[in-house]
Amino acid sequence: MLENYFPVLLFILVGLAIGVIPMLAGWLLAPSRPDSEKLSPYECGFEAFEDARMKFDVRYYLVAILFILFDLEIAFLFPWAVVLGEIGLFGFVSMVIFLAILVVGFAYEWMKGALEWE
Amino acid sequence: MEFFQELLGPAWTPVWTLAKIVAIVAPLMIGVAYLTYAERRIIGFMQVRLGCNRVGPFGLLQPIADGLKLMFKEIVIPTGASRGLYILAPVLAMAPALAAWAVIPFTDTLVLANIDAGLLYIMAVTSMGVYGVVLAGWASNSKYAFLGSMRSAAQIVSYEIAMGFALVGVLMSAQSLNLVDIVNGQKGEWGMLEWYFLPLFPLFLVYLISGVAELNRAPFDVAEGESEIVAGFHVDYSGMAFAIFFLAEYANMILVATLTSLLFLGGWLSPVPFLPDGFHWLAAKIAFVLFLFLWFRATFPRYRYDQIMRLGWKVFIPVTLVWLVLMGAVMQTPLGYLFH
Lengths: 118, 340
Known about the structure:
CATH class of chain A: Mainly Alpha
Strand content of chain A: under 5%
Oligomer: heterodimer
Shape of chain A: flat
Distance between the termini of chain A: 51 Å
Mean pLDDT of chain B: 87
């Protein structure tokens, strides 16, 4: 059982290596002649001012929170969907109740305008 | 073969597994390189231009020339950037795009790791890809990169929910997380009419469109909208560091196309009952979905950001929820065979 996962682990390591090796090759082969203008952050025709890590719209934060809620819900739905044939009507009704509670929350955030991006 | 097995002893399994991984990754990387070529040629023809045709016959050596050029370009690390994170970000974008291939079956016997949690593993690994985007935008310490990565990350996570719901529909039909079982569940005497894209048609559309949005591709490419925020999160990257983001994006395109083919279009199954199944069908389906991605880019104007978020949250999530409940309800009645 567990030995089936060994190729997966090896594949992740190969994936990391394919990210790292070209970077190393580029670092070794490419020229490096830095100057202060070249190393300044990208800006449209004038000196970059202030730090780029500024305040940003709170809605991005809201989307992240909503994402966690819904992603968790999907994590709950996965095992339920796989065994739906065996648990039958009882399992289906239980999940409908769970989804109904979630939909109330979804409707609330919709009404409150959490999903609006003007 | 047995000679090598004796020669290497206990080291045989890792070495043999590594050889199989290379046999998957090498064609994949060539596929990625030639997908960039195909994109330029196909969109060129759609816009009545030629596309790249200078390097080699029909421009076929263009991807290799591009790769070599990027290899010899300086990797600029801006002064304000966080060096460690800046270098880590492309690696974090690349690794999940490749690692997901560990569980992809190519035919019913040809699969590297036939694990029962296959689809769950793919969901988990592909979700990691967003870290590369967020880290790149943050580490660059440039306003354009920062804005681009915020937009990109919010868009990716939004559409991941719709994608996840679409997958739940597939699981309800297949009753398994194992990708080989999911494809075999679409087998039947009616050929392509048994594939999941018909009973799950709304979920198929949602999955396909969310796939395009997940990939940040046109018409959902506001994150890198060239005309407003230059290139989004990777604006400050150059040389090989940029090339890796680029490769990861195209590897993800092939991955989404493959998953669409496996989950909804019958994988390696033949569309008509009298022809034999085989890998060539899977390859043809992947090529078809990839062609759709290129076609979308040549055809549709870019969406506005609020339109993208509205489509994800206010259209796709309600549609998939309703369809899942409807499916579940029908599966409790004698008509349930429709969804199997």
